[in-house]
Amino acid sequence: MGEMLQNILSPRSFRLKVLFISIICLIIPATITLSIYNYLTKDTLKEQALSSANRELTIANEYVQKLLEDMMYITNFIQVDAEMNTLLKEKAKKQMEDTPEQKYQQFIDDSKINKTIDNITMLGGKSYVTILLKNGRSYTNYSNFEFVPTDLFKEDWFEQLNKTKGYETVWIGSQPTMFKSEKKHNPYQISVARTLRDDNLNIYGYVVVTIMENKINEIFKNMTGHEEMVLLDSSNHILSQQDEKGIGELFRFHEQLKDGNSSNIFQISKMDYLIAEQKISFTGWKLVSLIPYKQATNKVNAIFNKVMIVQVGLFAIFLILMTYFLRTITKPIACLGNVADIVQKGNLSIRSRIRSKDEIGRLSTSFDLMLDRINEMFREITITEERKRKAELDMLQAQINPHFLFNVLNSIRMKVLVKGDKESANMILSLSKLLRMTISKNKKIITFQEEIQIVLDFINIMNMRQKEKVTVEISVDEEAHSILIPRFILQPIIENSIIHGLNQSAGTIKLKTKLNENELIITIEDDGCGMDEETLNHLQSKLILSADSDYSMPQHKKGFSSLGLSNVYERMYMTFGQEFKMEIKSEIGKGTQVILSIPKGGCKSNVQSNAS
């Protein structure tokens, strides 16, 4: 299971990797975006739900407040209307009249008062108005059959009304309906009461305006939302709500109220509720709306779910399109991979033949060209190996004569030495050493000290051959003796100096070395005739061309060893690479100088690898 999961997470196919990475790069931002969107939407959702609840509550509050203001308007009118106050004050002072004139006047006054009451109660909904004087007289817009006004003196709240000052108002919360015709359909009523005072602020009467609680209840029921609305008094007892069963009881969520115009979300029994409240300033009461949070956000959640479904659908479509296009793009890469697998099995004749103009097309073209080049190199290597085997055979045949000649020379040296001719014996010894070094197959790489000995033996032989001797001055650092170089590197240069530089005449050849931090510099200098600039340039150009030429082809060779300067440069370049430098300096009449620069740090490793 773990291995399967690892293979899924780290596929070997490049195409699957591209698809996997693309899907991951698509899913992660989409997930983060949706998470952030969801997080931000929650806050917006909450704000919108609270705003919606407050808006609905404000509308309901305006209706309720208008209803209560109408009640206040009636009390205010009776309180401040001059004619009404004059008549009521007179009625409060007088006793019952007995004469016909007095009774008629009383009838006229009572009619005016009742007509005024009827006029002010025509606006708005139905309300019951009671004007009760201290002497027991009363004026109402209902009959005594409905309710006897003097029974108000027996109410508990009436004592509170007597304690008010000035124009203070007493709001009486929901109570059982007093009016007989209303009791069946409207079990509760709401009233407002105010005292009537004379010029000395003494109470001479009372005014009570009453409406049925169902008027407020109907406002709640007519609201378009799904809120549960209640009207609470200052002690959070229910005055009105959609369900009339709870009137008079303490509001069950009273602890979550903040006693002001506010809204918040709270949780009860793992369920969120949204509660909003607004205060009715002139009554001390407040209007509260309560709704489950999920219900408040149903519409927005539905929109969010639709958006989510659309986004997931678009994501799926985009994923399918992306997979299709990625497969189209990566198909040439898969084809190139299959070609590479076939080539790995040894079939070099196959070609990808993808010729698009993008990077994959260029890579395919380069791959095909590489296979062509490999086939060409195989053919060249085959030809080279055939030449090498032929050369080894020729060399084996040629070794017979040098061995025979070396043995004969050694015998001659011994006979000459026995006869006392040491000079001839030394010449033969030097020749034998050179011959031994020439035919030795195991010493392709020698130390710099051995190479110097070859140079000394060669000069010894040359001095015996020519009339005038060549002097050699050697100045070599002790540390340079152990450095390994290919054999017969210095001898061709010395040979050229003797034959071409000194013209086989007397002269001096200086061999010296200089060790720097990163390289060994070998300088061979003669005091011969030198070269002109044209000859020098021609010689240097031949050296550069020799590095790029096919070293398996036969070269034009000069001197004792048949190795020219070009051969020296080529062998040193093959051994040390581009870090090897060879420079030739010459002036007419001043001699010639050959400078070899060998990398010090890489001499032994490079040379040893070639020696093996």
UniProtKB/TrEMBL annotation:
Keyword Kinase applies: yes
Membrane topology: Multi-pass membrane protein
Keyword Kinase appears in the UniProt entry: yes
Xref: SMART domains: HAMP
Cellular compartments annotated: Cell membrane
Gene3D superfamilies per UniProt: HAMP domain in histidine kinase, Histidine kinase-like ATPase, C-terminal domain, PAS domain
GO cellular component, one term: plasma membrane
Gene Ontology MF annotations: ATP binding; phosphorelay sensor kinase activity
SUPFAM superfamilies attached to this UniProt entry: ATPase domain of HSP90 chaperone/DNA topoisomerase II/histidine kinase, HAMP domain-like
Superkingdom of this protein's organism: Bacteria
Domain HAMP: 327-379
Family matches, as PANTHER family: SENSOR HISTIDINE KINASE YPDA, SENSOR PROTEIN KINASE HPTS
Protein name from the UniProt record: Two-component sensor histidine kinase
